[in-house]
Design a protein that fits this description.
With 130 residues, the protein is of the alpha+beta class. Helices cover 19% and strands 32% of the residues.
């Protein structure tokens, strides 16, 4: 699986589909579905998601423009879970930790956006062919 920076991952998602973006789960249902799918079918342990973190404000901004439904960020605090304990540790981009040492975790991490990681895209439902 290709590993790129978060910016290059987002660019690849947009290039692949006009309505494509890095995956941005905004509620527990979407988050659990994504984590379950990746835990079953992905060979990697962490993947870029489409979020960027500002720990001062605090803010979680998705590249897709979607708004978090008080799942990862509620009021003025980051939620643990889905963020791992002591996360977000710094401003950066969101990674989904699919598993650690072979055990599914499904936790969010904040890391330097230039790190090379695998990624998962989402597309608008209207773009899916029945």
């Amino acid at each position: 699986m290709e590993r790129v920076s978060q910016a290059n991952a987002e660019a690849a998602c947009v290039a692949d589909n006009v309505d494509g973006h890095l995956a941005s789960p905004v509620d527990a249902t979407e988050y659990n579905a994504l984590q379950g799918f990746l835990a079953d079918y992905s060979a990697v342990d962490v993947m870029w998601l489409g979020g960027s973190i500002d720990t001062i404000t605090p803010a979680l901004t998705y590249t897709s423009g979607r708004l978090d439904n008080a799942y990862a960020l509620s009021g003025a605090s980051f939620q643990q879970p889905p963020f791992a304990a002591s996360e977000p540790s710094a401003d950066g981009c969101t990674l989904l930790q699919i598993r650690s040492s072979g055990v599914p975790t499904g936790l969010l991490l904040s890391r330097d956006c230039a790190l090379l990681r695998a990624f998962v895209c989402e597309v608008a439902e209207a773009d899916l062919v029945a």
